[in-house]
Amino acid sequence: MPFLLIFQQPDLGTAVTLLPVCFGILILAGLPLRYIAALAVVAVLSAPVVWTYGLEDYQRQRISSFLDPSQDARGAGYQQIQAQITVGSGGTLGKGFLQGTQSQYNFLPVAHNDFIFSAYAEEQGFLGVVVALGLYLFVILRGLDVARLAKDRLGTYVVVGIMSGFSFQVIYNIAMSAGFAPVKGLTLPLMSYGGSSIIATLAAFGLILNVRMRRFTN
User: Fold this and answer.
1) Which residue ranges does UniProt annotate as crossing the membrane (predicted)?
2) How far apart, in Å, are the Cα atoms of 87 and each of 18, 40, 59?
3) 132, 119 in Cβ contact below 8 A?
4) What pTM was computed for the model?
5) Distance between alpha carbon 174 and the CA centroid of its chain, in Å?
6) CB 14 within 8 A of CB 200
């Protein structure tokens, strides 16, 4: 229900972030994988209908520009092209803090928010990217460890749901920055500028810490 309501706003990007939360909990609760496979088949078969009647013009344009950003290099494909250039220009060691030409000279739009990872990759290079990915992996693994230690299934479901949404945002934002996913306004948790994003992320981590704190209570 929240997915449908948010989708009707329309805000497809935020709505999609709810799907990993839903499926993560359903799989943990014991939903047979054959049902997930059946839903995937239905989604593929209904894709032409959704493309024609369910998406706005700008959403279809984003998908088209993702498949071939050069078809509108100065319009819909501009962000994706600049993001890839920014990531690649960092090289192995990067250009240094606040020394990235693509991000500092505003060739890359919203470098402080949606494309913060591209700006980070330009400044810190491949090694910095490896460190950042390692830190994100550490957070995810610690979250899953809390889910394992939870005293009841409700706590486990809460933690798995939160970490599923968190992991999806991290993976999608990084994939978007590298040109492997359509451009969408999804923040990179704990890195992107924005008050609501950081408040929501820290509130979610507060719930996870609460589950861990209460693992020994009766």
Assistant:
1) 12-29, 36-54, 125-144, 156-178, 190-211
2) 28, 32, 24
3) no
4) 0.84
5) 7
6) no
- Exposure string for 132-167, b = 16+ CB within 10 A, e = fewer: beeebeebbeebeebbeebeeeebbbbbbbbbbbbb
Q: Which residues contact 3 (CB under 8 A, 6 or more apart)?
A: 15, 18, 19, 22
Contact 177, 83 (CB under 8 A): yes
Output the six-digit token pair for 42: 């239905």
* Contact present, 117 and 174 (Cβ < 8 Å): yes
Lowest mean pLDDT: which of 56-60, 173-177, 191-195?
56-60
C-alpha closest to that of 26 among 14, 140, 166, 18: 18
Q: Tell me: pLDDT of 175 over 80.
A: yes
How many residues are present in the chain? Answer: 218
Q: Are 104 and 139 in contact (CB under 8 A)?
A: no
d(CA 69, CA 74): 9
Question: In the structure encoding, which two tokens stand for residue 57, read together?
Answer: 């013009």
Rounded Cα–Cα distance for residues 83 and 79 (Å): 6
